[in-house]
Design brief:
rod-shaped; five-stranded antiparallel sheet; about 850 residues; 30 helices; transmembrane; transmembrane helix; Arp2/3 complex 21 kDa subunit ARPC3; Beta-Lactamase; alpha/beta; EAL_dom; about 15% strand; cyclic-guanylate-specific phosphodiesterase activity; eight-stranded mixed barrel
């Protein structure tokens, strides 16, 4: 198996299509080829002149046998690829050494040229014919010259076959040296170590072949029935060749399968690496060079003149055609839909030949400039991805064989599987970075997209946008319609911002966007425009649903990239601005550093509240309630107070809403209720029957277990239920009436007193008052304070008193600060008064002192002790 190293014909794509040659290298190679031809012809002529021809009758059968031997050696080759250049490992040394020992130079040269040139002409490999003819001449001239010199020098000292063996070694060495030179001219490769290893390999394999030839010659001349032994040796060698070639083919097939699968997989990872890319584009955006490499690898492995990939990864898009090898004839790049080689049923490889095909197939092959073709469809899990075509096998007289069919089928299966896996990877990554409802970016995808742009841009503005319509729509029409509004809102934002702006749906009706290369003023202007876009009515089931929207934004500092401000921090700042806008009633607000301090303080209060309860920082103050007109002290309202070690005395309006927004509101209510009940129990032990009122949160009314906790607290403190009151706002009840009303009914059944606080300010006072199981109404202090100057407020107070009494309810007036207001309330028939005129909220000790100083004991009805205000 000598290394007969001749670069194959460029027109057949055995050289130039495997290595796209530089034009200057191409010109240099042509000059080198002509030089090799000249040297080869001159060397052959010199050897022929030196070794005159001796005609013998045995040449009549030796000549044809040598031609047959060289033909077999030419076609029983092993094709390998070195640096994308095709090389043929053949067995020409065997007929060469036989010719050295048995035939004149001219006969061997003629046999070699006839076999080699004839084979290339039959295969239509003509572009390298000049170079190959020169090499053929040198492959015969050099061995004959060395053989003749050694034969004369070793005559009598060694048998002739020694000279033949050493002379024949010149053939693979000469062809290897010329081949490496040609390769260096074409590609600038290989380097010296690789060239040395290749030459050594050539020498070893050539020596093996020459040894086989010498053994065959000696056996045929010296052994009886030697030709039988030679037949056995040749048969064994052929079997060894087939086994070796089969193993080599399997190894290369496995390497090709692995390379093709990895090429698609790796390119798929690179393509879908960026969030925000549409899924369809990520599936079809495999680099053209990658497809070209895949097609080229298929062509090399199949030794085909051409491999064509027709790809339809996007069913809605056009078919892509990738050609490796000799270009397709004009008009054949895009076959028609009814082409018999494109639309194939099933997923098996089909083999077409012009010799035995029908007219349609023969016409399709002729249209492609091919005589034979292997065609296999690329079928994914759910669709046809395209087809693979291989045209005209090279380096053999025969066409494509069973191994080629098997290889192409396996390759197509692996390629289709790799493409399906790539599609799945694209889908998984798309889903990981996109919101399933709107197909916009989600929070992780937005984070990646923002980081990518902040690395390349400065002067950016990050927006947070909230759509305020969802709860009302969900309650009235269901979540499906609220989802449709979210989708419509996302579509509006996308159209307003364009495809290049990262836009995300964070949750619910919350969106975020990044504006790059924008000033803060430009960001504010666009934020106002987006507010108008979101706030426009939404058509829902023949209705126009009015929507509200709030926008907060933050200007990104110049160093706000990967090493600067984090995306989550920017989102938090934009959210702070959005909440500030919602609190102030503005449509758009920019983030200011002072806002961060406010919300940081609120965060600190929430996180420190539990510790504040345990450490005694939070206490309960009591504000008395007095009956009108008798001025008996009926009870107190329990009000929470917090003296913070760092911030000092905190207003309840600052920390109570923050606590209510968390899960700590239950702890706050329980703390106030337990403190109030303990106080009531202490008063009972002293003979005083005073009630305590505790404010309830919306979260308390939504807790089905709250009545059970109230009942347990009453039993624990041994307090009659009528001495405990719960005050609730009607807006809190109406937030979720289907959950609040059952809780209120259970509390009312316990016997506790229920009061509607801030009555008159709700949107449903008159409509829902009769449905609530309440005992008292408390007139909001804003109306009481305005009675002295506003006749409208006085009318409202009078109406509430009359409405309460008509429903059998006790009416309590808050905010009584003047004697005139108290007298007016007495005139209207109001039952109870509460306010600064009577007392401010007092700590426990100060309230006890107030009772001692401002009240007198008296015996009331049923011999109960009552406290009455002194005048």
């Amino acid at each position: 198996m000598s290394d007969h190293h001749r670069p194959h014909d460029p027109d057949s794509s055995r050289l130039s299509d495997r290595a796209q040659m530089d034009p200057r290298r191409r010109l240099l190679y042509r000059a080198f080829s002509r030089a090799v031809l000249v040297v080869g012809v001159v060397a052959a002529a010199a050897v022929a002149w030196w070794l005159p021809l001796e005609l013998e009758t045995r040449l009549l059968w030796i000549g044809p046998l040598l031609v047959l031997g060289f033909l077999l050696a030419e076609h029983l080759t092993i094709d390998v690829d070195i640096r994308q250049v095709g090389w043929a490992i053949s067995f020409t040394e065997i007929p060469l050494v036989l010719g050295l020992l048995s035939a004149p130079f001219e006969v061997v040269l003629a046999a070699h040229l006839l076999a080699g040139v004839g084979s290339q002409l039959v295969r239509r490999l003509t572009s390298n014919l000049v170079y190959n003819v020169g090499v053929m001449c040198l492959e015969i001239a050099a061995p004959f010259a060395i053989y003749s010199l050694l034969k004369q020098a070793l005559e009598g000292a060694a048998p002739p076959w020694v000279a033949a063996l050493l002379g024949a070694l010149a053939a693979p060495l000469v062809s290897t040296a010329l081949g490496l030179t040609a390769l260096n001219i074409l590609r600038g490769e290989p380097r010296l170590p690789a060239a040395f290893r290749l030459a050594l390999h050539t020498l070893v394999v050539g020596l093996l072949n020459i040894s086989v030839g010498v053994v065959v010659y000696e056996v045929a001349h010296r052994a009886d029935w030697g030709w039988v032994l030679n037949i056995l040796v040749v048969a064994a060698l052929a079997a060894l060749y087939r086994a070796y070639y089969g193993l080599l083919r399997e190894q290369r097939d496995l390497e090709t399968l692995s390379d093709v699968s990895l090429s698609v997989a790796r390119s798929g990872q690179q393509v879908v690496a960026r969030p925000g890319k549409l899924l369809e584009s990520s599936l079809t955006e495999l680099d053209s060079d990658e497809w070209q490499k895949i097609a080229q690898r298929l062509r090399e492995q199949l030794s085909a003149k051409r491999v064509v990939l027709h790809l339809r990864l996007d069913q809605a898009g056009p078919t892509r055609t990738v050609v490796a090898g000799r270009p397709l004839p004009a008009g054949a790049e895009h076959p028609s839909p009814d082409d018999p080689l494109v639309e194939l049923p099933g997923g098996h490889v089909r083999y077409f030949r012009s010799l035995d095909a029908d007219d349609d197939v023969r016409q399709a092959l002729r249209h492609r400039g091919a005589h034979e073709s292997l065609v296999v469809p690329l079928r994914g899990a759910h669709q046809l991805l395209g087809t693979v075509e291989a045209h005209d096998r090279l380096s053999r007289w025969r066409g494509f064989g069973r191994s080629d069919v098997q290889l192409l089928g396996t390759l197509a299966s692996h390629l289709a599987t790799a493409l399906d896996n790539r599609r799945l990877l694209a889908r998984l990554r798309h889903d990981a970075y996109h919101d399933p409802l709107t197909n916009l970016l989600n929070r992780p995808g937005f984070r990646e997209a923002v980081l990518e742009r902040l690395r390349r841009h400065s002067g950016s503005v990050l927006l947070r946008l909230d759509l305020d319509v969802l709860s009302a729509v969900s309650d009235a029409l269901g979540h499906t319609w609220s989802d449709r509004i979210v989708v419509a809102a996302g579509r509006r934002l996308k159209e307003a911002l364009g495809d290049d702006v990262p836009l995300a749906r964070l949750e619910g009706g919350a969106f975020a966007a990044l504006l790059v290369d924008r000033t803060e003023a430009e960001g504010h202007k666009l934020a106002e425009q987006l507010h108008e876009v979101l706030a426009a009515p939404y058509p829902v089931d023949k209705l126009n649903v009015e929507a509200g929207a709030v926008v907060g934004y933050v200007a990104v500092p110049p160093d706000g990239g990967e090493g600067g401000v984090e995306v989550d921090s920017l989102l938090q700042r934009a959210d702070v601005a959005l909440r500030a806008a919602r609190t102030s009633g503005d449509a758009v607000r920019a983030y200011l550093p002072s806002m961060g301090q406010i919300f940081l303080r609120r965060f600190q209060l929430v996180t420190q509240f539990r510790q504040a309860l345990d450490s005694g920082q939070v206490t309960v103050h009591y504000q008395p309630k007095v009956a009108l007109p008798g001025r008996e002290v009926l009870g107190v309202e329990a009000l929470v107070r917090w003296v913070h070690p760092e911030f000092g005395r905190l207003d309840p309006d600052e920390f109570v809403p923050a606590v209510e927004a968390t899960g700590l509101v239950d702890a706050l209510t329980s703390f106030v209720m337990d403190s109030a009940l303990a106080k009531v129990r202490g008063w009972l032990d002293r003979g005083l029957r005073l009630s305590a009122a505790v404010n309830l949160s919306v979260r308390n009314l939504a807790d089905e277990t709250f009545p059970d906790r109230v009942a347990e607290a009453l039993r624990r403190h041994d307090v009659p239920p009528r001495l405990l009151s719960f005050e609730l706002t009607e807006s809190g009840v109406m937030a979720e009436p289907e959950r609040a009303l059952p809780v209120l009914r259970r509390l009312h059944a316990l016997g506790v007193v229920l009061a509607v606080d801030d009555f008159g300010t709700g949107y449903s006072s008159l409509a829902y008052l009769r449905q609530l199981p309440v005992d008292e109404v408390k007139i909001d202090k804003s109306f009481v304070l305005g009675m002295g100057t506003d006749l409208g407020d006085m009318a409202v107070v009078r109406s509430i008193v009359e409405l309460g009494h008509s429903l059998g309810l006790i009416v309590v007036a808050e905010g009584v600060e003047e004697d005139a207001a108290r007298d007016q309330l007495i005139e209207m028939g109001c039952d109870v008064a509460q306010g600064y005129l009577i007392s401010r909220p007092l700590s426990e000790d100060r309230f006890e002192a107030w009772l001692r100083a401002r009240t007198v004991r008296a015996r009331g009805r049923r011999d109960e002790t009552v406290l009455t205000l002194v005048r």
